[in-house]
Amino acid sequence: MAAGPNTVKLLSPAKLNLMLHIVGRRSDGYHELQTLFQLLDYGDTMDFEATDSPELNVNCAGLELPPQQNLAYRAAHLLQQHSQCRRGASIKWQKQLPSGGGLGGGSSNAATTLLALNRLWDLHLSLDELAALGQQLGADVPVFVRGHSAWAEGIGEKLVPVELPERWYVVIKPACQVSTAEVFANEQLTRNTPTIKMATVFAQGGHNDCEMVVRQMYPAVDKALIWLNKFSQAKLTGTGACVFADFANKQQANTVIRQLPDSWQGFIAKGVNLSPVHAALA
């Protein structure tokens, strides 16, 4: 963490859904789920500077969105309103995590913004308060706010921290963007998987209910899963385009990523239990 009294630089991490079971559908349209969140040591590096004027200046290279659609801007604005803070901030970062990839990039950026500005603005809000604010921005934001790999239920907001074994991951992004809304609207999506105990997942594993639908809707994802499955069991993360497989060490992961076809993006990352943001701010 590079920091001064008014500045901080933080790694806003990606996540993987090691499994994703959809167990029901609520009357408000949200889906009830069970999932296992694995945080990674890879993500977007974000620079924050607190200012004495209330303006919020948010600049993300590689993400062309108006401020009102940028989750980091929305997080800063929401925190300002909630705390009635009269200070502002300059937030800059280069986008590394692909949009529509299922890696939680936007949610992670929002959570990192809440955590960074809570520190820089001296607000002293609790993690419970910040997570509640984050939930207003998206279902995946609270796990990044709380900053620990976790078992999740509900719409993803009921979190139990877990200690996952250290593994290395190869993550591939085929040349497509997956629409979460379209996946959840698909009539073929399984919505009634029986609930399962967390201990059963650790003993037997789980699956991703979205994978079959995404493979049918996006042939590029299907091809990436087939290719990666040659090296280790490949899975889809969340509802996004990214697929992943785990390996025992960095050397094995590097061997696979070096063979990646030129038409796909990819990276390797280590699974971590504690978010790099929390490690830096501790």
UniProtKB/TrEMBL annotation:
Q: What is its EC number?
A: 2.7.1.148
Q: Name one Pfam family in it.
A: GHMP_kinases_N
- What are the GHMP kinase C-terminal domain coordinates in residue numbering? 203-264
Q: Which organism is it from?
A: Candidatus Litorirhabdus singularis
Family to which the UniProt record says this protein belongs: Belongs to the GHMP kinase family. IspE subfamily.
Chain coiled-coil ranges:
none
- What are the entry keywords? ATP-binding, Isoprene biosynthesis, Kinase, Nucleotide-binding, Transferase
Q: Which reaction does it catalyse?
A: 4-CDP-2-C-methyl-D-erythritol + ATP = 4-CDP-2-C-methyl-D-erythritol 2-phosphate + ADP + H(+)
Q: Which GO terms describe its molecular function?
A: 4-(cytidine 5'-diphospho)-2-C-methyl-D-erythritol kinase activity
UniProt lists the gene as ispE
Q: Which InterPro entries match?
A: GHMP_kinase_C_dom, GHMP_kinase_C_sf, GHMP_kinase_N_dom, IspE, Ribosomal_Su5_D2-typ_SF, Ribsml_uS5_D2-typ_fold_subgr
Q: Which domain of life is it from?
A: Bacteria
According to the UniProt record, what class of enzyme is this? Answer: transferase
Protein name as it appears in the record = 4-diphosphocytidyl-2-C-methyl-D-erythritol kinase
Q: Where is the GHMP kinase N-terminal domain?
A: 70-147
What this chain does, per the entry, is described as: Catalyzes the phosphorylation of the position 2 hydroxy group of 4-diphosphocytidyl-2C-methyl-D-erythritol.
**Keyword match Transferase:** yes
Metabolic or biological pathway: Isoprenoid biosynthesis; isopentenyl diphosphate biosynthesis via DXP pathway; isopentenyl diphosphate from 1-deoxy-D-xylulose 5-phosphate: step 3/6
Q: Which NCBIfam families match?
A: ispE
Statement: the UniProt record of this protein carries the keyword Lipid biosynthesis: no
Residues where ATP binds: P98, S99, G100, G101, G102, L103, G104, G105, G106, S107, S108
Q: What positions constitute the catalytic site?
A: K15, D140
